[in-house]
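cache lookup: miss for this entity combination. No prior model stored, computing from scratch. Input as submitted by user K.M.:
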Amino acid sequence: MSDLQSMPILQAPVAEGAKDQHMVVNMGPQHPATHGVLRLVLEIDGEIVVRLYPEIGYLHTGIEKTCEAKFYQQVVPLTDRVNYLDPLSNNLCYCLAVEKLLGLEAPPKAQWLRVLLAELSRLNSHLIWLGTHAMDIGALTVFLYTFREREEILRIFEGLAGQRMMTSYFRIGGLLMEPPLDFFDRVQAFIHMLPEKIDEYSNLLTGNPIFRGRLKGVGFLSAADAVALGVTGPPMRASGVDFDLRRDMPYSGYEKFQFHVPIATEGDCWARYEVRLVEMRESIKIIQQALDGMPQGPIKADAPKIVLPDREKMKTQMEALIHHFKIVTDGFAVPAGEVYQGIEAGHGQTGYYVVSDGTAKPYRVHMRYPSFATLQALETMCKGRLLADVVAVIGSIDIVLGEIDR
Amino acid sequence: MTEAIKNSLEGKAAVLEGLPEHPAVRAILGWNPGALVDAKFDRGELTLTIAAEEIHAAAVAVQAAGYNFFEDMTAVDWFPSSPRFQLSYHILSHSYKEYIRLRVLVDGPDAAVETMTTVWPAANYYEREVFDLFGIRFGGHPNLRRILMPDDWEGHPLRKDYPVEGYR
């Protein structure tokens, strides 16, 4: 890498042979196509992008520092705020990491519900991606349709946890409480309805010459570049790298589900679009399997010093009341050690690195979020292309600034 | 407690004896056994502690052994003990389908290690983040600037001696 390429654009001299026709353009942080507060500094030659430099940190809230001051169970609601479009995946990853530290395993019903909800959460994330991506390209209609379906997911979440977006439904060692009585019927009705809606989006977009023209061949990323730059999830699989943590390193009982991992080899925005559409259909299959095979039993692990007792027990049994009081006021001590737990979230591989020093508060929580790494590949994908293509590429990598800045 | 915690291997000798066929262990032994300071197998995760000045060469060795994907990298501040900082690199192998953790201990107010960007370009943002939030420097990094905090920020927020309310 030459010195020139590595320097921030605003401070660097213009590229070799540029004369004076190169222009530096600032895009964002308040730009509707940057999905939040991404700021890009672009050096352009006419309309061709010569260099691109992302400036991030506008949403930095120091969540990792905040985690160090909380009890283990108090970190769960914080994780929702990081990737707010795929909230339950964050919960899942954190809970699995702490359960690994504790040597605790959630009971089968909790694991199956976790898989079901993580897939529902993935659908939520992909629906928002499809709507906003199509809107960036200029197809406004799809946005209204996908948000209509997303509304149903949010209603299911609301019935489940009382919250629409920041559900915080998972707990260390299980789940918050039993799902409401109509939960399974609503999920069944939703996934029964969704495949034809996906056909509807596909009818609107796949044959649309403008949409095709804006995505085909745009934002190419080779398989080698994807691996080298840390790109994960659908963008990596659209570049032809066949790897999915759900299938290859199963967690939370994913090994019991049959599903297909879609791969494309073109590596452009169109391939990412196609991979995600197939992923949505596969998620529906996983949810159907989870509904059909849902085991019976408790939803919380049998660990009274770690898992909060049921409200009913707390009010009738002295031990349960004592445990409740101890967990809420003192937390629970976690054996010293360090673990890294990776899961496949909607955007790619999410990972939590939790270090314990044997007390009731995590010594260090580090969050690995896919968009942070994928952003590094943005320059590779946009270089030499038109300025308008940057918008298509940002949409196609499905960026969430909350998880980049944390 | 589950099996994973019982089956932990503590210390270099125990890991070399217990996991002699592990590809990452073999790669490090084949390259330079002296650089392996410590090792641990705990909760199903292998941690290899490498001497700070050898980390770049160790990364080249494990990459050649099939650990192709740089997943994550961060630091832990063990203030006030010494050595103060621990760097944890989480490397994924797409072929073996497992993670390993490379661990480096560094110390001092101007702690520094060699950059990983020449082995895995993905390390770029992660090293900037560690520099920003912990103040550890990476020699040879192409653009070692603050990434999350403003450019004129003073201090490194994730250090343990950094007050939660900020400096007053």
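stored under new cache key. The CA atoms of residues 139 and 337 of chain A lie 50 Å apart.
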